[in-house]
Design brief:
Blueprint (H helix, E strand, L loop, with lengths): L22 E3 L26 H10 L3 E4 L23 E3 L4 E3 L5 H11 L2 E6 L6 H12 L5 H8 L10 E4 L14 H18 L4 E4 L12 H10 L5 E8 L6 H5 L1 H23 L6 E9 L29 H16 L4 E6 L9 E3 L5 E3 L6 H6 L2 E5 L38 E8 L5 H8 L5 E4 L7 E2 L9 E2 L25 E3 L6 E3 L11
Helix pairs in contact: 3-4, 3-5, 5-6, 6-8, 8-9
């Protein structure tokens, strides 16, 4: 077994871990707000229409600060629409996500929800289709205690005390051509600097975040940061970073190393910011607000476009990814990486919080739950469901034959208690727990030998597989002849005998796959 050594020396600290690193993000997108945090007719709804079960899960996460209201949504957002009596608020078309915004939940309602959740507000201003004056109006409405027209309007709308928003985002992803009001770095830097100067004249105590690149893969990355900070260096406190990761073409090894890319991203932005500071002869340090990060399978997203002039749904189902254990491992590694850069990453926001690429999921009129993989009833009727958890000690490439790798120990799948467990010293590739439907042979075996573990030994010399018909247990076939076969053995499993396993089926009658024997593997899909 490979030994690891960790040395901790308190004389060399990186930096204090700031509470704002554990932030979130709520955007008016899909079912995030409506049918997510807000559902007036639900049995768990409080007097304001917010779901208590969702609030409880948000409190459980301990989210420190939440960025609102976007996101791409903010570049078409008119904040005046979100205040005042609900019955007088106009409905607007949201061009970013091709839906209808009812404005039932606005600035006042969301601030009340944050009070219940115990979180701080990070507010974004629209610099896509609006400018300096609208940002100043929103700041006056939010932070000035009273004595002005806009602060009095807030009081008349039911909020005597100011919202006292401390952190403000100057637009969103203005480098992206998908952004409403997309600008060049020079144009955006000029506008952001003007807005920042005006906002600081009104409230010098606020913290401002200027837009960095929307991803390290953007063609303008690096140069965008340099030019924007050249305009805004003296007027802002942080520059934003956004990063999303996904598994591409089954390359799980690269996916598990996503934190390496995030590390390079942060280092590059820090170096660029410090370069601008050095050119200006400034002792000031620009921190990073990593205000969008998560695992997001962007390749699964289809372009959401209206099919007709009247096709603008309310709260459509968008970006509702369902995550696996491997996604959770990557997520954890990204969070750890953010902590290792605590000296320069001052704030971070998990994107997003409820239903939309989120850790919390809900159903209209139904339950709320912690986001995880859920089986599909229709799929379970059609074919078997198979889940495998691997804890392999070898870090060999995917092409390595199963007979060359060994596991540190077997690990049963949760809630799968075997009748007999193989000893920890057994040499095996993986341990799998199988649950299947009545339409497959493996289902019949699983029912007759409920919750038995299959431990794959390293002694199999040939890649033979087993027939999938009930009468074919005693015969062998080639891999091509049995695309859904999973394991082979000279006879049915008997007491004390290990399974010899060389391939895994996808559980739906599809092609079989050789066990990759990497350091971690996702459940087969």
């Amino acid at each position: 077994m490979t030994a690891a050594r960790l040395t901790v020396d308190p004389r060399f600290p990186i930096g204090a871990v700031r509470r704002r690193l554990f932030g979130g993000f709520v955007e008016h997108l899909g079912r995030h707000v409506y049918d997510g945090i807000y559902e007036p007719g639900h049995a768990e709804a409080d007097e304001q229409g917010f779901r208590r079960d969702v609030l409880e899960l948000v409190r459980e996460l301990g989210v420190s600060m939440i960025r609102y209201p976007g996101g791409n949504f903010v570049s078409g957002f008119r904040w005046e629409d979100s205040v005042g009596p609900r019955e007088q608020r106009p409905r607007r078309l949201d061009l970013a996500w091709h839906s209808t915004e009812t404005n039932e939940v606005g600035l006042h309602e969301f601030a009340d929800w944050l009070d219940k959740a115990g979180s701080e507000l990070m507010l974004a201003v629209n610099l896509g289709t609006r400018g300096v004056l609208e940002a100043l109006d929103l700041l006056e409405y939010s932070n000035v205690p009273g004595g002005t027209a806009l602060s009095q309007q807030r009081i008349d709308n039911g909020r005597a005390e100011p919202f006292d928003v401390r952190v403000w985002c100057l637009g969103n992803e203005m480098d992206g051509p998908w952004q409403l009001g997309h600008r060049s770095a020079d144009d955006y830097g000029t506008l952001a600097a003007q807005t920042a100067k005006g906002m600081r004249q009104m409230d010098p105590s606020i913290e401002l975040v200027v837009c960095g690149s929307s991803g390290a893969a953007m063609p303008t990355f690096g140069e965008w940061e340099r030019e924007v900070l050249t305009h805004t260096y003296d007027d802002v406190d942080m520059i934003s970073c956004h990063a999303y990761y996904q598994e591409h073409d089954g390359d799980i090894d690269s996916f598990l190393a996503s934190a390496v890319d995030m590390d390079r991203f942060i280092e590059a932005v820090v170096a660029t910011a410090d370069h601008v500071g050095a050119v200006r002869g400034s002792d000031k340090k620009i921190d990073i607000s990593f205000d969008e990060w998560n695992v997001w399978y962007i390749d699964r997203v289809e372009a959401v476009k209206p099919t007709a002039i009247d096709d603008w749904p309310i709260a459509p189902r968008l970006l509702e990814d369902v995550y696996s254990a491997v996604d959770a491992v990557v997520f954890g590694s990204l969070l750890i990486l953010l902590l290792t850069h605590a000296d320069r990453v001052a704030s971070a926001s998990l994107a997003q919080l409820v239903n939309v690429i989120a850790p919390i999921m809900t159903e209209p009129g139904g339950p709320a739950w912690r986001g995880r993989r859920r089986s599909s009833p229709s799929r379970s009727r059609r074919a078997s469901r198979r889940a495998t958890r691997f804890v392999c000690g070898s870090k060999r490439p995917r092409s390595t034959r199963p007979s060359t790798a060994r596991c540190r120990r077997w690990m049963p799948w949760p809630r799968m208690t075997p009748r007999r467990a193989q000893p920890r010293s057994s040499s095996c590739i993986a341990v799998a727990a199988t649950r299947s439907s009545s339409r497959s042979t493996s289902a019949a075996w699983a029912r007759s030998r409920s919750r038995r573990l299959m431990c794959c030994t390293t002694t199999t010399p040939t890649p033979a597989t087993r027939s999938t018909t009930p009468s074919g247990w005693g015969r062998r076939r080639s891999r091509r002849a049995s695309p859904t076969a999973s394991c082979t053995s000279p006879s049915r499993p008997s007491r004390g005998r290990h399974w010899r396993c060389v391939a895994w089926a996808d559980g739906r009658g599809g092609r079989s796959r050789r066990h990759p024997c990497t350091s971690l593997s996702a459940p087969l899909r």
